[in-house]
Write a structure and sequence with these properties.
3-stranded parallel beta sheet; two-stranded antiparallel sheet; alpha/beta; 182 residues; 8 helices
Length: 182
C-alpha cells in the first residue's frame, strides 16, 4: 500500500493506475481527485488515522451541490455519522472515527480506496458493520484495496487476495479459493 501511495519506491516493477504508470507522481498527486467525472484519485484510509475537525471554506454553487451530494452519500452509508454531525470528532468512539475517516475519503469520489487495517481496534459489532459498508462501497463501483490482519473477515468479502510473508507474495488466488486453503 505504501508503494501505491508513493511513500515507498519499488525495488523493481512499476505501479500502474488506470493504465498509466504513476511512479513519477508525488503522493499528493496520486491521492488527489481527478478532474473528470467519476474518476477520483486513490485516497487512503490509514489504520492510525486521527479524525480532525474540518476547516471552513467557501464553495462555488456547483461545488456546494457536489459536496452536498457526496455528504448525502456518506450519511446514507454511515447514519451514525449523521447522528453525530455536531459532535467534536475527537470525542467519537473508535468505530465512529473509522466511519468518519472512510466518509472523508469517499468525499473525493475515488475509483480506488486504499484501506489499511479497517478493523484494527474496533469492537466486534463495528468490525461487522465496517465490512458490510466496505462491501456496499464496492457494489457502488469503488475498487477497494485493503490490508487486513483479520483474514477470515477480509476473505469473506474480497474478490481476490494476496498473502504476504516478509514482503513477498507467497499466495495469490480468488478469495474464496484462498479461504479454503489451509
Amino acid at each position: 500500500m505504501k508503494t501505491i501511495m508513493g511513500v515507498v519506491r519499488p525495488t523493481n516493477g512499476e505501479v500502474i493506475y488506470d493504465g498509466v504508470p504513476i511512479g513519477n507522481l508525488a503522493t499528493a498527486e496520486r491521492v488527489r481527485p481527478r478532474h473528470r467525472p467519476g474518476a477520483g484519485g486513490a485516497p487512503p484510509v490509514p489504520s492510525d488515522d486521527r479524525v480532525r475537525e474540518p476547516g471552513n471554506g467557501r464553495l462555488s454553487a456547483q461545488a456546494r451541490r457536489r459536496f452536498d451530494q457526496d455528504l448525502d452519500r456518506v450519511y446514507s452509508l454511515f447514519p451514525r455519522v449523521k447522528e453525530r454531525h455536531g459532535q467534536i470528532a475527537g470525542t467519537l468512539s473508535g468505530g465512529e472515527q473509522q466511519m468518519v475517516a472512510m466518509g472523508r475519503a469517499l468525499m473525493a469520489r475515488p475509483r480506488l480506496l486504499c484501506m489499511d487495517e479497517p478493523s484494527m481496534g474496533l469492537a466486534p459489532i463495528f468490525v461487522e458493520q465496517t465490512f458490510d459498508i466496505i462491501q456496499e462501497i464496492n457494489r457502488q463501483g469503488t475498487t477497494i484495496f485493503m490490508v487486513e490482519q483479520n483474514a477470515n473477515m477480509a476473505l469473506s468479502i474480497a474478490h481476490r487476495a494476496y498473502v504476504l510473508q516478509t514482503g513477498q507474495v507467497v499466495l495469490s488466488r480468488h478469495a474464496e479459493e484462498l479461504r479454503r486453503t489451509p
